[in-house]
C-alpha cells in the first residue's frame, strides 16, 4: 500500500513539476516573442526594452535614442511589449492619422478593458477617455460643454497664490533658493481643475497639509509600483501589498465621490460645472454610481496630472534658456491680468515647442482592432491587437521637424510674426498628427483650451516674478517610463530686482 502511495505521490509531483515548467516556458515565450500572426514587415523591439526604465538608470530619452529611434525613423511602426502583452506602436504621422480617424476599426479600449484586474484600472474605471461607442457618447453628452467652457475666473488668482507660495518658501531674508517643484505644481493644477471643472474650492494653495493633496499622493504611491505597471497581470494574485493598494484606491474613490456630491448640494453650487452635470445625470438615472465616480476621478486625474507635467517641463526649458526668459518677460510683464494671453506670439511659440519635445502623455496604447486591418495599405494587423502611439517619438521625427532634437520655439513663428498664421500652423500640425500632444480628431483632448489657458497664466506669473535656473545638484533626467517630464526637478528661483523689497 505504502509502495503505491509513494509511486502516486512521486508521479503527481512529476506531473505538477512538468506542468509548472510548461507554464513557465509558455509565459517566457509569450513575453520574449510577439504572436506569430503579428506583421512581419515591421521590426520587433526586444522585450526587455520596456523594463529598462524600471530596472536601470536610463531615462526615456536615452531609451528612445538607443533602442527606438532608428527603427521608428525607418518603419514608423514597431512591435513592442508593454503591460503584459505585445502591441503595435505607431509613430509615423501618416499612420497615426489613419488610426485616429478610424474609431470603428481602431476602437478605444482603455485599461478597464485591457487590464480590468489591475489596481490602476480600479482607480480610474470606465470613463470618458477610455470608453468606446454608446457609453462614450453618453459620457460626452453629460460633460462636454462643462469641460470645454469651464469657469476660469479663479485661475489668475491661483497663479498669484502659487507665486506667493514660492516666495514664502524662498523666505523674506533671502533673494533666491533652490526648491523642488513637484508639490507646488501639483497643488496649482489640482486647485485649478477642482475649482473650474468640478466646482469645488479645496483651498489647496492655502493649506500646507490639505487633505485631498495628501490623500492623492498616498494613493498614487500605492498604485504606481514599477513591477506591477510592467506586469499588471500579477494584480490578479492575492499579494498582500496589492490587496492593500486596492483598499486604498476604494477609500480614495469613496472620499472623493462624497466631496463632489456634497458640493453639488450647496446653494451656491456651480450648476454648469462638470461635477454638477455628473450629479444631475446620476440623479436622473442616466449614469450609475460607479460611472459617476469613474468620470469624476478621471476629470481630477487627467485634468491635473497632464498640466502638472507640462508646467514641470516648461520650468525646465525656461531654466535652460535664459534668453527665452527675457523674451517672455519683456512680452508679458506689464500685461494686465484680465488680458487674454492667447495672442502673444513668443508665449505660444514657447509652449508649442515644449509640447512638441516634452508631450506630457508620451506613449498611449489604448486602441484595439475590431477586425483585421491593413494599416497604410502595408502593415497587416490582426483583429484584437492593441495599438498605440508615441507622441514623444512623433514630436522628434526628423522627417517632419528640422533639427528635431533642438529646442527652437522660433520654428513656430512665421516671418511676418502673424499670430493667426502661427495658430494655423499649430492646428495643422495637430491635424497632420506631426504633433499629437493633445491628440487629434474625434477623441482629441477636451481640456486642451483650458490647459493652454492656465499654462499661459502660469508662465506669465513665473517670468514676471522670478529668474530661474536649474539647481546644479539636480541630475538632468526625464522620467524613466510613463508620462514625460524632468524627474524630481529642482529649480533655483531668484526674485526679480523689482520684487526683492516687496
Ligand atoms: C497639458 C495638458 C493635457 C494634455 C497634454 C492632454 C492630452 C490628452 C490626450 C493625448 C488625449 C487623448 C488620449 C487618448 O488617445 O486616449 C486626451 C484626452 C482627453 N483629455 Fe486631455 N490633456 C491635457 C489636459 C486635460 C485637461 C485639463 C482636461 C480636463 C478635464 C482633459 C480632459 C480630457 C478628456 C475628457 C479627454 C477624452 C476626450 C474623449 O475621448 O472624448 N485633458 N488628453
From TrEMBL:
Pfam families: p450 (PF00067)
Binding site for heme: 445
Annotated keywords: Heme, Iron, Membrane, Metal-binding, Monooxygenase, Oxidoreductase, Transmembrane, Transmembrane helix
Cofactor: heme
E.C. code: 1.14.14.1
Family label: Belongs to the cytochrome P450 family.
Name listed for the protein in its UniProt record: Cytochrome P450 2C26
Amino acid at each position: 500500500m505504502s509502495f503505491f502511495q509513494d509511486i502516486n505521490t512521486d508521479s503527481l509531483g512529476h506531473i505538477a513539476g512538468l506542468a509548472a515548467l510548461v507554464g513557465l516556458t509558455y509565459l517566457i515565450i509569450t513575453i520574449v516573442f510577439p504572436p506569430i500572426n503579428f506583421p512581419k514587415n515591421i521590426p520587433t523591439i526586444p522585450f526587455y526594452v520596456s523594463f529598462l526604465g524600471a530596472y536601470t538608470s536610463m531615462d526615456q530619452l536615452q531609451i528612445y535614442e538607443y533602442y527606438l529611434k532608428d527603427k521608428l525613423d525607418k518603419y514608423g511602426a514597431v512591435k513592442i511589449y508593454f503591460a503584459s502583452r505585445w502591441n503595435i506602436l505607431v509613430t509615423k504621422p501618416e499612420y497615426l492619422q489613419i488610426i485616429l480617424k478610424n474609431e470603428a476599426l481602431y476602437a478605444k479600449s482603455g485599461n478597464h478593458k485591457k487590464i480590468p484586474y489591475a489596481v490602476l484600472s480600479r482607480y480610474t474605471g470606465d470613463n470618458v477617455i477610455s470608453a468606446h461607442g454608446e457609453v462614450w457618447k453618453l459620457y460626452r453628452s453629460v460633460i462636454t460643454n462643462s469641460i470645454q467652457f469651464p469657469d476660469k475666473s479663479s485661475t489668475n488668482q491661483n497663479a498669484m497664490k502659487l507665486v506667493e507660495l514660492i516666495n514664502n518658501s524662498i523666505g523674506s531674508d533671502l533673494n533666491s533658493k533652490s526648491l523642488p517643484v513637484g508639490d507646488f505644481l501639483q497643488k496649482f493644477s489640482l486647485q485649478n481643475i477642482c475649482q473650474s471643472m468640478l466646482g469645488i474650492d479645496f483651498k489647496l494653495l492655502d493649506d500646507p497639509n490639505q487633505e485631498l493633496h495628501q490623500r492623492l499622493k498616498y494613493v498614487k504611491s500605492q498604485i504606481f509600483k514599477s513591477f506591477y505597471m510592467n506586469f499588471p497581470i500579477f494584480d490578479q494574485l492575492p499579494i498582500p501589498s496589492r490587496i492593500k493598494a486596492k483598499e486604498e484606491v476604494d477609500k480614495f474613490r469613496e472620499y472623493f465621490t462624497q466631496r463632489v456630491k456634497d458640493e453639488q448640494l450647496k446653494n451656491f453650487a456651480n450648476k454648469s460645472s462638470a461635477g454638477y452635470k455628473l450629479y444631475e445625470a446620476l440623479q436622473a438615472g442616466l449614469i450609475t454610481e460607479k460611472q459617476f465616480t469613474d468620470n469624476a476621478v478621471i476629470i481630477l486625474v487627467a485634468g491635473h496630472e497632464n498640466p502638472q507635467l507640462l508646467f514641470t517641463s516648461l520650468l525646465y526649458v525656461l531654466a535652460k534658456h535664459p534668453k527665452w526668459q527675457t523674451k517672455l518677460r519683456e512680452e508679458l510683464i506689464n500685461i494686465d491680468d484680465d488680458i487674454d494671453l492667447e495672442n502673444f506670439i513668443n508665449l505660444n511659440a514657447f509652449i508649442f515647442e515644449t509640447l512638441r519635445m516634452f508631450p506630457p502623455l508620451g506613449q498611449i496604447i489604448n486602441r484595439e482592432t475590431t477586425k483585421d486591418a491593413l494599416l497604410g495599405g502595408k502593415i497587416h494587423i490582426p483583429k484584437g491587437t492593441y495599438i498605440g502611439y508615441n507622441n514623444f517619438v512623433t514630436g522628434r521625427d526628423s522627417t517632419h521637424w528640422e533639427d528635431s532634437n533642438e529646442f527652437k520655439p522660433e520654428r513656430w513663428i512665421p516671418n511676418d510674426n502673424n499670430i493667426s498664421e502661427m495658430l494655423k500652423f499649430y492646428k495643422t500640425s495637430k491635424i497632420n498628427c506631426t504633433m499629437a500632444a493633445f491628440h487629434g480628431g474625434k477623441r482629441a483632448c477636451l481640456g486642451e483650451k483650458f490647459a493652454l489657458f492656465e499654462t499661459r497664466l502660469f508662465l506669465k506669473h513665473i517670468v514676471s516674478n522670478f529668474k530661474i535656473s536649474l539647481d546644479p545638484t539636480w541630475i538632468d533626467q526625464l522620467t524613466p517610463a510613463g508620462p514625460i517630464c524632468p524627474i524630481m526637478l529642482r529649480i533655483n528661483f531668484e526674485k526679480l530686482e523689482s520684487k526683492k523689497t516687496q
